Amino acid sequence: MNNPECWLLFSRGNILLTGSGDCLWQDIPSHLGEIVQRHPLGHHDGCFLTAVELAVPEADAAERVDSVPVRTAIMAEALPGFLMHQAASLINWGRNNRCCSRCGGSLVESARMDDRARVCKSCDYQSYPTVSPCIIVLIYRDDQILLARGIHHPPGFHSLIAGFVEPGETLEQAVAREVMEETGLIVSDIRYQSSQPWPFPHNLMVGFTARCTGGKLQVDTRELVHADWFPTDNLPQLPPRQTIARQLVEGFLEPMRSGR
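RESULT FIELD:
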């Protein structure tokens, strides 16, 4: 027996909500607009789930349906596990990759249900979803950690140093380079901790800890508003618990709290 279909609907960077405030739809109301792209996500909670982006035909059409930003839905854990991250990453990729990078022809969905590729109608080139690796690092010295406020962060909010991995780099080299570029600090004892998908637009955040061994703190004002050392018993406002930044901080503090 086939599982019923359910849908996760995206429009203009938001997730559309049903009348009961749920993010999963049992059908797609025709007045919401035509389907621009779709991505099967597999089975979830007794149904076959597909992420869909809709082209809203009128400026006020989406206003007749409640919606939330994708980031809000992820923070609220509207779907378990990686499903929301995966859906948002695929929608972002599809929105930005509608033409063949080889010949400029139109891309269409693969005929295979289990294949995420988009296929060029002109040259048959297959384009697959992009994953862009980023590093994020908790930098420490003695009983202090380095926290920074990025140029897009709200006042009072602090997080960790992060950045994209460049072609030809190892993850550890990316950590050392990003720390030096953004803070002027030298780090060693770079140790992998965990990773987290982050669909803004299609990143994989790879988390590390590193010990500061030198340099003078000099903030790159193109990236950061402020950065400073904070004692572990007096930290400022931190990112939400669902984020890898907060998980790195909590993981670093846990041995201290338990007396190990």
